[in-house]
Specification:
By secondary structure, the protein is α+β, with helices and mostly antiparallel strands. The protein has 11 helices and 10 strands. Helix 5 runs antiparallel to helix 7 and helix 8 runs antiparallel to helix 9. The protein binds coenzyme a persulfide.
Protein backbone atom coordinates (compact mmCIF):
# COMPACT_ATOMS: atom_id res chain seq x y z
CA UNK A 1 0.00 0.00 0.00
CA UNK A 2 1.33 3.45 -0.85
CA UNK A 3 0.39 6.78 0.67
CA UNK A 4 -2.34 8.93 -0.81
CA UNK A 5 -0.62 11.58 -2.88
CA UNK A 6 -1.75 15.00 -1.77
CA UNK A 7 -0.69 16.14 -5.27
CA UNK A 8 -0.23 19.85 -5.72
CA UNK A 9 -2.78 21.79 -7.60
CA UNK A 10 -0.95 21.61 -10.89
CA UNK A 11 -2.99 20.06 -13.63
CA UNK A 12 -0.96 17.41 -15.35
CA UNK A 13 -1.76 16.81 -19.00
CA UNK A 14 -2.33 13.34 -20.38
CA UNK A 15 1.21 13.53 -21.79
CA UNK A 16 2.63 14.29 -18.35
CA UNK A 17 0.74 11.39 -16.78
CA UNK A 18 2.01 9.14 -19.56
CA UNK A 19 5.68 9.99 -19.14
CA UNK A 20 5.39 9.64 -15.37
CA UNK A 21 3.81 6.19 -15.76
CA UNK A 22 6.40 5.17 -18.36
CA UNK A 23 9.28 6.21 -16.07
CA UNK A 24 7.71 4.43 -13.10
CA UNK A 25 7.26 1.20 -15.08
CA UNK A 26 10.73 1.32 -16.56
CA UNK A 27 12.33 1.97 -13.16
CA UNK A 28 10.46 -0.89 -11.51
CA UNK A 29 11.09 -3.40 -14.29
CA UNK A 30 14.59 -2.58 -15.44
CA UNK A 31 16.37 -0.63 -12.69
CA UNK A 32 14.99 -2.01 -9.41
CA UNK A 33 16.49 -5.50 -9.94
CA UNK A 34 20.02 -4.16 -10.56
CA UNK A 35 20.24 -1.01 -8.40
CA UNK A 36 21.82 -2.60 -5.31
CA UNK A 37 24.33 -4.60 -7.34
CA UNK A 38 25.57 -1.58 -9.32
CA UNK A 39 25.77 0.42 -6.10
CA UNK A 40 27.97 -2.30 -4.65
CA UNK A 41 30.31 -2.67 -7.63
CA UNK A 42 30.33 0.98 -8.72
CA UNK A 43 30.05 -0.15 -12.35
CA UNK A 44 28.42 2.19 -14.86
CA UNK A 45 24.97 0.82 -15.89
CA UNK A 46 25.49 1.41 -19.60
CA UNK A 47 22.82 -1.05 -20.81
CA UNK A 48 19.93 0.50 -18.88
CA UNK A 49 21.16 4.00 -19.77
CA UNK A 50 21.07 3.11 -23.47
CA UNK A 51 17.55 1.71 -23.03
CA UNK A 52 16.53 4.97 -21.34
CA UNK A 53 17.94 6.83 -24.36
CA UNK A 54 15.87 4.70 -26.73
CA UNK A 55 12.65 5.64 -24.93
CA UNK A 56 13.54 9.34 -24.95
CA UNK A 57 14.69 9.86 -21.35
CA UNK A 58 18.14 11.23 -22.27
CA UNK A 59 16.69 14.19 -24.14
CA UNK A 60 13.24 14.84 -22.73
CA UNK A 61 13.28 18.56 -23.58
CA UNK A 62 15.36 18.27 -26.75
CA UNK A 63 13.25 18.70 -29.89
CA UNK A 64 12.52 15.55 -31.87
CA UNK A 65 14.66 16.83 -34.76
CA UNK A 66 17.69 16.40 -32.45
CA UNK A 67 16.71 12.93 -31.28
CA UNK A 68 14.84 14.11 -28.18
CA UNK A 69 11.30 13.64 -26.89
CA UNK A 70 10.29 17.29 -27.44
CA UNK A 71 8.55 17.63 -24.07
CA UNK A 72 8.67 20.29 -21.34
CA UNK A 73 10.43 20.76 -17.99
CA UNK A 74 7.50 19.40 -16.00
CA UNK A 75 7.70 16.17 -18.02
CA UNK A 76 11.43 16.04 -17.25
CA UNK A 77 11.05 16.49 -13.48
CA UNK A 78 8.21 13.96 -13.28
CA UNK A 79 10.25 11.30 -15.11
CA UNK A 80 13.40 12.03 -13.14
CA UNK A 81 11.62 11.76 -9.80
CA UNK A 82 10.28 8.32 -10.75
CA UNK A 83 13.72 7.07 -11.81
CA UNK A 84 15.28 8.41 -8.59
CA UNK A 85 12.64 6.76 -6.40
CA UNK A 86 14.26 3.53 -7.51
CA UNK A 87 17.89 4.55 -8.09
CA UNK A 88 19.50 7.97 -7.79
CA UNK A 89 22.58 6.85 -9.77
CA UNK A 90 20.53 6.29 -12.92
CA UNK A 91 18.81 9.60 -12.18
CA UNK A 92 22.13 11.44 -11.91
CA UNK A 93 23.28 10.16 -15.30
CA UNK A 94 19.92 11.11 -16.81
CA UNK A 95 20.04 14.55 -15.21
CA UNK A 96 23.56 15.33 -16.50
CA UNK A 97 22.65 14.37 -20.08
CA UNK A 98 19.41 16.36 -20.03
CA UNK A 99 20.10 19.48 -18.05
CA UNK A 100 23.86 19.93 -17.88
CA UNK A 101 24.71 18.80 -21.42
CA UNK A 102 21.76 19.18 -23.82
CA UNK A 103 20.27 22.30 -22.27
CA UNK A 104 23.32 24.55 -22.70
CA UNK A 105 23.81 23.50 -26.32
CA UNK A 106 20.11 23.97 -27.09
CA UNK A 107 20.22 27.45 -25.60
CA UNK A 108 23.62 28.69 -26.79
CA UNK A 109 24.70 26.33 -29.60
CA UNK A 110 24.73 26.71 -33.37
CA UNK A 111 22.58 24.53 -35.60
CA UNK A 112 25.64 22.39 -36.47
CA UNK A 113 26.52 21.96 -32.78
CA UNK A 114 22.97 20.85 -31.96
CA UNK A 115 23.03 18.27 -34.74
CA UNK A 116 26.50 17.02 -33.90
CA UNK A 117 26.33 16.88 -30.10
CA UNK A 118 22.69 16.71 -28.94
CA UNK A 119 21.41 14.11 -31.39
CA UNK A 120 23.65 11.22 -30.26
CA UNK A 121 23.29 12.09 -26.55
CA UNK A 122 19.51 12.61 -26.58
CA UNK A 123 19.04 9.26 -28.29
CA UNK A 124 21.26 7.49 -25.75
CA UNK A 125 24.01 6.42 -28.17
CA UNK A 126 26.56 8.68 -26.48
CA UNK A 127 27.05 10.07 -22.99
CA UNK A 128 27.46 13.78 -22.28
CA UNK A 129 29.03 15.55 -19.30
CA UNK A 130 29.63 19.04 -17.86
CA UNK A 131 33.00 20.15 -16.60
CA UNK A 132 33.38 23.32 -14.53
CA UNK A 133 35.07 22.26 -11.29
CA UNK A 134 38.84 21.99 -10.79
CA UNK A 135 40.89 20.71 -7.85
CA UNK A 136 41.31 24.28 -6.52
CA UNK A 137 38.09 25.79 -7.90
CA UNK A 138 34.72 24.54 -6.63
CA UNK A 139 32.13 26.97 -5.23
CA UNK A 140 34.32 29.88 -6.39
CA UNK A 141 33.96 28.74 -9.98
CA UNK A 142 35.56 31.84 -11.55
CA UNK A 143 39.02 30.98 -10.17
CA UNK A 144 39.82 28.13 -12.57
CA UNK A 145 43.41 27.52 -13.72
CA UNK A 146 42.92 25.50 -16.91
CA UNK A 147 43.63 27.46 -20.09
CA UNK A 148 42.60 27.61 -23.75
CA UNK A 149 44.88 29.56 -26.08
CA UNK A 150 43.82 30.45 -29.62
CA UNK A 151 46.13 29.04 -32.31
CA UNK A 152 44.87 29.62 -35.87
CA UNK A 153 41.50 27.90 -36.28
CA UNK A 154 41.89 25.96 -33.03
CA UNK A 155 42.11 26.55 -29.31
CA UNK A 156 44.81 24.60 -27.49
CA UNK A 157 43.52 23.44 -24.10
CA UNK A 158 45.61 22.43 -21.08
CA UNK A 159 44.62 21.71 -17.50
CA UNK A 160 42.99 19.41 -15.02
CA UNK A 161 39.25 19.26 -14.33
CA UNK A 162 37.76 17.34 -11.41
CA UNK A 163 34.48 15.86 -10.16
CA UNK A 164 33.17 15.34 -13.67
CA UNK A 165 29.96 13.30 -13.31
CA UNK A 166 29.95 10.53 -15.99
CA UNK A 167 33.61 11.53 -16.66
CA UNK A 168 34.93 7.93 -16.89
CA UNK A 169 32.54 7.13 -19.77
CA UNK A 170 31.54 10.48 -21.33
CA UNK A 171 31.93 10.80 -25.11
CA UNK A 172 31.43 14.57 -25.10
CA UNK A 173 31.87 17.37 -22.55
CA UNK A 174 30.70 20.92 -22.20
CA UNK A 175 33.96 22.34 -20.85
CA UNK A 176 34.53 25.69 -19.15
CA UNK A 177 38.06 27.01 -19.24
CA UNK A 178 39.94 30.30 -19.07
CA UNK A 179 40.80 32.10 -22.30
CA UNK A 180 41.76 35.42 -20.67
CA UNK A 181 42.86 35.17 -17.04
CA UNK A 182 43.08 38.98 -16.68
CA UNK A 183 39.31 39.26 -17.16
CA UNK A 184 38.26 37.09 -14.17
CA UNK A 185 34.85 35.47 -14.76
CA UNK A 186 34.59 37.40 -18.06
CA UNK A 187 37.67 35.51 -19.30
CA UNK A 188 35.99 32.07 -19.17
CA UNK A 189 34.88 30.39 -22.42
CA UNK A 190 32.80 27.25 -23.06
CA UNK A 191 33.88 24.51 -25.50
CA UNK A 192 32.34 21.30 -26.79
CA UNK A 193 34.86 18.52 -26.36
CA UNK A 194 35.13 15.16 -28.09
CA UNK A 195 36.71 12.57 -25.80
CA UNK A 196 38.09 10.61 -28.78
CA UNK A 197 40.51 13.38 -29.75
CA UNK A 198 44.21 13.49 -28.90
CA UNK A 199 45.14 15.32 -25.72
CA UNK A 200 42.10 14.13 -23.75
CA UNK A 201 42.49 11.62 -20.94
CA UNK A 202 40.51 10.37 -18.02
CA UNK A 203 42.08 10.65 -14.58
CA UNK A 204 41.39 9.18 -11.20
CA UNK A 205 37.89 7.75 -10.66
CA UNK A 206 36.45 9.04 -7.38
CA UNK A 207 35.61 6.40 -4.74
CA UNK A 208 32.31 7.87 -3.58
CA UNK A 209 30.02 7.48 -0.56
CA UNK A 210 26.84 7.42 -2.64
CA UNK A 211 25.45 7.48 -6.20
CA UNK A 212 28.20 4.92 -6.73
CA UNK A 213 26.97 3.66 -10.12
CA UNK A 214 27.24 7.17 -11.53
CA UNK A 215 30.93 7.30 -12.31
CA UNK A 216 32.88 10.46 -11.50
CA UNK A 217 36.45 11.33 -12.44
CA UNK A 218 39.10 13.88 -13.25
CA UNK A 219 39.65 14.81 -16.90
CA UNK A 220 43.10 15.88 -18.11
CA UNK A 221 43.82 18.09 -21.12
CA UNK A 222 47.25 18.09 -22.65
CA UNK A 223 47.52 20.22 -25.81
CA UNK A 224 43.98 19.19 -26.80
CA UNK A 225 43.02 21.05 -30.00
CA UNK A 226 39.43 22.26 -30.13
CA UNK A 227 38.32 23.75 -33.47
CA UNK A 228 36.80 27.24 -33.30
CA UNK A 229 33.46 25.91 -34.56
CA UNK A 230 33.17 23.83 -31.37
CA UNK A 231 33.37 26.88 -29.12
CA UNK A 232 30.00 27.29 -27.37
CA UNK A 233 28.90 30.93 -27.41
CA UNK A 234 31.27 33.88 -27.47
CA UNK A 235 34.79 34.05 -26.14
CA UNK A 236 34.47 35.27 -22.52
CA UNK A 237 30.80 34.24 -22.34
CA UNK A 238 31.46 30.93 -20.59
CA UNK A 239 30.73 31.90 -16.98
CA UNK A 240 27.22 33.08 -17.82
CA UNK A 241 26.61 29.88 -19.80
CA UNK A 242 27.87 27.83 -16.84
CA UNK A 243 25.56 29.64 -14.40
CA UNK A 244 22.57 29.51 -16.75
CA UNK A 245 23.04 25.78 -17.22
CA UNK A 246 23.41 25.26 -13.47
CA UNK A 247 20.03 26.92 -12.93
CA UNK A 248 18.52 24.16 -15.06
CA UNK A 249 20.72 21.52 -13.43
CA UNK A 250 19.58 22.54 -9.96
CA UNK A 251 15.95 21.76 -10.86
CA UNK A 252 17.19 18.31 -11.90
CA UNK A 253 19.05 17.78 -8.61
CA UNK A 254 15.95 18.90 -6.72
CA UNK A 255 13.90 16.25 -8.55
CA UNK A 256 16.49 13.59 -7.75
CA UNK A 257 16.32 14.62 -4.11
CA UNK A 258 12.52 14.41 -4.19
CA UNK A 259 12.74 10.86 -5.58
CA UNK A 260 15.13 9.80 -2.80
CA UNK A 261 12.92 11.47 -0.17
CA UNK A 262 9.84 9.67 -1.53
CA UNK A 263 11.61 6.32 -1.57
CA UNK A 264 12.74 6.83 2.04
CA UNK A 265 9.22 7.77 3.05
CA UNK A 266 7.49 4.87 1.28
CA UNK A 267 9.92 2.34 2.78
CA UNK A 268 9.28 3.80 6.25
CA UNK A 269 5.52 3.80 5.79
CA UNK A 270 5.52 0.11 4.92
CA UNK A 271 7.89 -0.74 7.75
CA UNK A 272 5.91 1.02 10.53
CA UNK A 273 2.75 -0.80 9.51
CA UNK A 274 4.43 -4.19 9.86
CA UNK A 275 7.06 -3.96 12.57
CA UNK A 276 5.88 -4.47 16.11
CA UNK A 277 7.33 -3.44 19.47
CA UNK A 278 5.82 -3.42 22.95
CA UNK A 279 2.71 -5.12 21.58
CA UNK A 280 1.92 -2.50 18.94
CA UNK A 281 2.80 -1.58 15.38
CA UNK A 282 5.66 0.90 15.69
CA UNK A 283 3.64 3.40 13.62
CA UNK A 284 1.27 3.64 16.60
CA UNK A 285 3.95 5.38 18.65
CA UNK A 286 4.04 9.13 18.14
CA UNK A 287 7.83 9.12 18.36
CA UNK A 288 7.70 7.28 15.04
CA UNK A 289 4.49 8.51 13.42
CA UNK A 290 5.34 12.20 13.89
CA UNK A 291 8.55 11.60 11.95
CA UNK A 292 6.39 10.37 9.07
CA UNK A 293 4.16 13.43 9.33
CA UNK A 294 7.17 15.71 9.01
CA UNK A 295 8.58 13.69 6.10
CA UNK A 296 5.32 13.80 4.17
CA UNK A 297 4.82 17.53 4.74
CA UNK A 298 8.35 18.40 3.61
CA UNK A 299 8.06 16.14 0.55
CA UNK A 300 4.89 17.87 -0.64
CA UNK A 301 6.41 21.31 -0.01
CA UNK A 302 9.52 20.31 -1.99
CA UNK A 303 7.33 19.06 -4.82
CA UNK A 304 5.55 22.44 -5.03
CA UNK A 305 8.86 24.31 -5.16
CA UNK A 306 10.12 21.99 -7.91
CA UNK A 307 6.97 22.34 -10.02
CA UNK A 308 7.10 26.11 -9.55
CA UNK A 309 10.74 26.11 -10.73
CA UNK A 310 9.82 23.90 -13.71
CA UNK A 311 7.10 26.35 -14.71
CA UNK A 312 9.50 29.30 -14.28
CA UNK A 313 11.96 27.53 -16.59
CA UNK A 314 9.22 27.06 -19.19
CA UNK A 315 8.37 30.75 -18.87
CA UNK A 316 12.05 31.55 -19.51
CA UNK A 317 11.77 29.86 -22.91
CA UNK A 318 9.25 32.57 -23.89
CA UNK A 319 10.31 35.66 -21.93
CA UNK A 320 13.99 35.00 -21.18
CA UNK A 321 13.31 35.83 -17.50
CA UNK A 322 15.85 34.18 -15.19
CA UNK A 323 14.62 31.49 -12.82
CA UNK A 324 17.74 31.32 -10.61
CA UNK A 325 15.73 32.06 -7.45
CA UNK A 326 13.12 29.35 -8.06
CA UNK A 327 15.80 26.79 -9.00
CA UNK A 328 17.97 27.57 -5.95
CA UNK A 329 15.00 27.39 -3.53
CA UNK A 330 13.82 24.09 -5.01
CA UNK A 331 17.30 22.57 -4.84
CA UNK A 332 17.99 23.82 -1.31
CA UNK A 333 14.72 22.64 0.15
CA UNK A 334 14.45 19.35 -1.75
CA UNK A 335 18.02 18.27 -0.97
CA UNK A 336 17.62 19.02 2.73
CA UNK A 337 14.30 17.15 2.61
CA UNK A 338 16.04 14.15 1.05
CA UNK A 339 18.61 14.13 3.84
CA UNK A 340 15.91 14.59 6.48
CA UNK A 341 13.80 11.75 5.09
CA UNK A 342 16.68 9.34 4.51
CA UNK A 343 18.06 10.03 8.00
CA UNK A 344 14.66 9.36 9.58
CA UNK A 345 14.11 6.29 7.42
CA UNK A 346 17.32 4.73 8.74
CA UNK A 347 16.32 5.62 12.29
CA UNK A 348 12.81 4.15 11.91
CA UNK A 349 14.26 0.93 10.46
CA UNK A 350 16.75 0.65 13.35
CA UNK A 351 19.30 -2.10 12.74
CA UNK A 352 17.56 -3.01 9.47
CA UNK A 353 18.18 0.55 8.30
CA UNK A 354 21.90 0.04 8.83
CA UNK A 355 21.97 -3.19 6.85
CA UNK A 356 22.78 -3.46 3.15
CA UNK A 357 19.95 -5.98 2.90
CA UNK A 358 17.51 -3.05 2.94
CA UNK A 359 17.69 -0.13 0.50
CA UNK A 360 17.35 2.70 3.03
CA UNK A 361 21.08 2.83 3.79
CA UNK A 362 21.61 3.45 0.04
CA UNK A 363 19.03 6.24 0.08
CA UNK A 364 20.90 7.76 3.04
CA UNK A 365 24.25 7.66 1.19
CA UNK A 366 22.72 8.88 -2.07
CA UNK A 367 20.83 11.77 -0.45
CA UNK A 368 23.96 13.51 0.84
CA UNK A 369 25.36 14.51 -2.55
CA UNK A 370 22.22 16.46 -3.43
CA UNK A 371 23.26 18.98 -0.74
CA UNK A 372 26.69 19.27 -2.36
CA UNK A 373 26.82 19.04 -6.15
CA UNK A 374 25.66 21.69 -8.59
CA UNK A 375 26.12 24.19 -5.79
CA UNK A 376 26.19 23.36 -2.08
CA UNK A 377 23.30 24.33 0.22
CA UNK A 378 25.48 27.26 1.33
CA UNK A 379 25.80 28.45 -2.30
CA UNK A 380 22.02 28.12 -2.78
CA UNK A 381 21.49 30.29 0.32
CA UNK A 382 23.98 32.79 -1.07
CA UNK A 383 22.19 32.91 -4.44
CA UNK A 384 18.75 33.28 -2.80
CA UNK A 385 19.80 35.94 -0.29
CA UNK A 386 21.75 37.99 -2.85
CA UNK A 387 18.79 37.97 -5.23
CA UNK A 388 16.37 38.91 -2.45
CA UNK A 389 18.39 41.62 -0.70
CA UNK A 390 20.14 42.98 -3.77
CA UNK A 391 23.24 43.13 -1.52
CA UNK A 392 26.50 41.23 -1.76
N1 LIG B 1 22.42 33.19 -14.87
C1 LIG B 1 22.99 34.10 -15.71
N2 LIG B 1 24.02 34.89 -15.33
C2 LIG B 1 24.48 34.76 -14.07
C3 LIG B 1 23.94 33.85 -13.15
C4 LIG B 1 22.86 33.04 -13.61
N3 LIG B 1 22.30 32.14 -12.78
N4 LIG B 1 24.60 33.93 -11.99
C5 LIG B 1 25.53 34.88 -12.15
N5 LIG B 1 25.45 35.38 -13.41
C6 LIG B 1 26.27 36.47 -14.00
C7 LIG B 1 26.14 37.74 -13.17
O1 LIG B 1 25.03 38.50 -13.63
C8 LIG B 1 27.46 38.44 -13.45
O2 LIG B 1 27.37 39.05 -14.71
P1 LIG B 1 28.27 40.35 -15.13
O3 LIG B 1 29.57 39.80 -15.59
O4 LIG B 1 27.51 40.95 -16.27
O5 LIG B 1 28.39 41.22 -13.94
C9 LIG B 1 28.42 37.26 -13.57
O6 LIG B 1 27.64 36.11 -13.89
C10 LIG B 1 29.20 37.01 -12.28
O7 LIG B 1 28.27 36.81 -11.25
P2 LIG B 1 28.66 36.94 -9.72
O8 LIG B 1 29.44 38.22 -9.51
O9 LIG B 1 27.46 36.71 -8.89
O10 LIG B 1 29.69 35.74 -9.57
P3 LIG B 1 30.44 35.17 -8.29
O11 LIG B 1 31.85 34.93 -8.67
O12 LIG B 1 30.14 35.98 -7.08
O13 LIG B 1 29.79 33.71 -8.16
C11 LIG B 1 28.25 32.09 -7.40
C12 LIG B 1 28.47 33.50 -7.95
C13 LIG B 1 28.97 31.82 -6.10
C14 LIG B 1 26.75 32.00 -7.16
C15 LIG B 1 28.67 31.06 -8.47
O14 LIG B 1 30.06 31.04 -8.62
C16 LIG B 1 28.21 29.65 -8.19
O15 LIG B 1 27.06 29.30 -8.46
N6 LIG B 1 29.10 28.81 -7.63
C17 LIG B 1 28.82 27.42 -7.43
C18 LIG B 1 29.32 26.66 -8.60
C19 LIG B 1 28.74 25.30 -8.63
O16 LIG B 1 27.55 25.11 -8.52
N7 LIG B 1 29.62 24.33 -8.82
C20 LIG B 1 29.23 22.98 -8.96
C21 LIG B 1 29.54 22.56 -10.35
S1 LIG B 1 28.67 21.14 -10.87
S2 LIG B 1 29.28 19.70 -9.76
Amino acid sequence: MTSASAGPNFTLSEEHEMIRAAARDFARKEIAPIAAEFDETGDFPIETIKMMGEIGFMGIEAPEEYGGAGMDTLAYVLALEEICKVDASHGTIMSVNNSLFNYGILKFGTEEQKQKFITPVASGEKIGAYSLTEPMSGSDAATMRSRAVRDGDDYVINGRKSWVTSGPVADFLVLFTMTDPDQGHRGITAFLIDADQKGYSRGKKEPKLGIRASATSEILFEDYRCPVEDRLGEEGGGFKIAMTVLDAGRIGVASQALGIAEASYQASLEYVREREAFGKKIGQFQGVSFKLADMKTRIEAARLLIYQAALAKEENKKSGKRYSLEAAMAKLFASETAMFCAHNAVQIHGGMGYSKEYPVERYFRDAKVTEIYEGTSEIQRLVISRLETGLR
